[in-house]
Structures are given as structure tokens and as C-alpha cells.
């Protein structure tokens, strides 16, 4: 005798099946009671190692008059300081330089690693290695950190009066102002993920068809757009933080 399911239960089962859909194959690790994407952890650790190693080598023997690697590192730091100062303001930007700099450098090196490093050489039991920002989990995590940062900045400067912004300039805008705090991380994460994924697909198609000369200009274009995406993410993150601290005097 069959069991008749209600339409509500059937709909819930249908949504549960959709939630299990995945794009491609993934290599998983079991860490504690959690299942994590090993590809993302491996490539993220490589990017972090590159950043830490480059910084350590560049400043291992600092000079009063910088040369070589130290000169390049100081140029990058000055660029990040100017970016943060422009978006957050002269008085408050100093404490946020490490956060914005970390975001920019991690995304920049991650994006370039997908275009320059031959991840395909390393074989995995399932799936394949790619740029960390080619995974939606990474971009959502970065966007969530940005959201937490601008809430922290606003609450630190204004206290509970920070939430008064939701009814400015009129309480009628309360739903829209609340919705804005959800759309900010969504737009940050999906913009970065979509552009990096599309860039890798655009490069992969001509490489598979004409693997010698034709893909080279496309790869250079990919490097340019990857750098632009890192700059956009860092600029918006700093702008959101600066916006949350406005009018605290």
C-alpha cells in the first residue's frame, strides 16, 4: 500500500534535491564533523604562502633607501594606503589599511594564480585545482568578512545609534535600508565569482581549440580583468566601511 505525500512534503523534497545539485566534481576532506572543499584549501594555502614568502624575502634586510623587492613592497603598500584613505577618510583610514590590503592582495594573487599557475598538472582523485576565487564559497566568505567589518566599524564609532541609519531620512525606507545590507555582500561575492569563472572559461575555450598563439592575447586580457576585480572588491569594501562611519562626530 503506497504512502500518499502531501503537496507541501513533495515540494520540500523537491527543494532538498535541488540543494544537493553540484557543478562539476569536488575533492572533499573531512575535518572534524565538517566536509570541506580540499581544492579551495590547497590553492588558498598556496596563495597565502606566496604572499608571506614574498613579504619575508622583500623585507628581510630593510634599507633606509629602498631598492629592489623592498621598493616594490613599499609601492604596493603606498597604493593600498591611498586607496583606503580615499574611501574611508584621513582620520580613520590607518587602522583599516591591514584589512583592505589583505583583501586586495589575497584576491589579486588568487585571480592571477588561476591564469598563470599550471594547476592542471596536479591530479586529484576528484575535480581539479583552480583559483580560490573560482569557488563561490571563497567569494561569499570574503564578502561576509567585509559585511562584518563595516558593521564593526559603525558600531565602534556610533554605538547602538548606528542602527538609526535604517530610518534615515524617513522610516518608510526601513525595509529598503535593511535589504541593502543583504544585497551588498551578495553583489560583492557574485560579481567576483562570476567574473573569475567567466574569465577562466573564456581562456579555456580558445586554448582547447587553438592551443598555441591565439589564446595568448586572451590570457593577457584575463590578467588585466583579474587585477581590476581585486581593485573593485577592495575599493567597495573600503567604501562600505567609510560609509558606516560617516557622521559619527
UniProtKB/TrEMBL annotation:
Encoding gene (name): atpI
Subunit details: F-type ATPases have 2 components, CF(1) - the catalytic core - and CF(0) - the membrane proton channel. CF(1) has five subunits: alpha(3), beta(3), gamma(1), delta(1), epsilon(1). CF(0) has four main subunits: a, b, b' and c.
Membrane topology term: Multi-pass membrane protein
A Pfam family recorded for this sequence: ATP-synt_A
Family: Belongs to the ATPase A chain family.
Keywords: ATP synthesis, CF(0), Chloroplast, Hydrogen ion transport, Ion transport, Membrane, Plastid, Thylakoid, Transmembrane, Transmembrane helix, Transport
GO molecular function: proton-transporting ATP synthase activity, rotational mechanism
UniProt xrefs under SUPFAM superfamilies: F1F0 ATP synthase subunit A
Function: Key component of the proton channel; it plays a direct role in the translocation of protons across the membrane.
InterPro entries assigned to the protein according to its UniProt record, in alphabetical order: ATP_syn_F0_a_bact/chloroplast, ATP_synth_F0_asu, ATP_synth_F0_asu_AS, F0_ATP_A_sf
Thylakoid is among the record's keywords: yes
TM region(s), chain numbering: 36-59, 93-116, 136-155, 192-214, 220-241
Organism: Wollemia nobilis
UniProt-recorded name of the protein: ATP synthase subunit a, chloroplastic
GO cellular-component term (any): proton-transporting ATP synthase complex
Compartment(s) of residence: Membrane; Plastid, Chloroplast thylakoid membrane
Major localisation: membrane
Keyword rRNA-binding in record: no
Classification via NCBIfam families: ATP_synt_6_or_A
Amino acid at each position: 500500500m503506497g504512502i500518499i505525500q502531501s503537496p507541501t512534503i513533495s515540494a520540500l523534497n523537491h527543494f532538498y534535491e535541488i540543494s544537493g545539485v553540484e557543478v562539476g566534481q569536488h575533492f572533499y576532506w573531512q575535518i572534524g564533523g565538517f566536509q570541506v572543499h580540499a581544492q579551495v584549501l590547497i590553492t588558498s594555502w598556496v596563495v597565502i604562502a606566496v604572499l608571506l614568502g614574498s613579504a619575508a624575502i622583500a623585507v628581510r634586510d630593510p634599507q633606509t633607501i629602498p631598492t629592489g623587492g623592498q621598493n616594490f613592497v613599499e609601492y604596493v603598500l603606498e597604493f593600498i594606503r591611498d586607496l583606503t584613505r580615499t574611501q574611508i577618510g584621513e582620520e580613520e583610514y590607518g587602522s583599516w589599511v591591514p584589512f583592505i590590503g589583505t583583501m586586495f592582495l589575497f584576491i589579486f594573487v588568487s585571480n592571477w594564480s588561476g591564469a598563470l599557475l599550471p594547476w592542471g598538472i596536479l591530479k586529484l582523485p576528484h575535480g581539479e585545482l583552480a583559483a580560490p576565487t573560482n569557488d563561490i564559497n571563497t567569494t561569499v566568505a570574503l564578502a561576509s568578512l567585509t559585511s562584518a567589518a563595516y558593521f564593526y566599524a559603525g558600531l565602534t564609532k556610533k554605538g547602538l545609534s548606528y542602527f538609526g541609519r535604517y530610518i534615515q531620512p524617513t522610516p518608510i525606507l526601513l525595509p529598503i535600508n535593511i535589504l541593502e545590507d543583504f544585497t551588498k555582500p551578495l553583489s560583492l561575492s557574485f560579481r567576483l565569482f562570476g567574473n573569475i569563472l567567466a574569465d577562466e572559461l573564456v581562456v579555456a575555450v580558445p586554448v582547447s581549440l587553438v592551443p598555441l598563439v591565439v589564446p595568448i592575447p586572451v590570457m593577457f586580457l584575463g590578467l588585466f580583468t583579474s587585477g581590476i576585480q581585486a581593485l573593485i572588491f577592495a575599493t567597495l569594501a573600503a567604501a562600505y566601511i567609510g560609509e558606516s562611519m560617516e557622521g559619527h562626530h
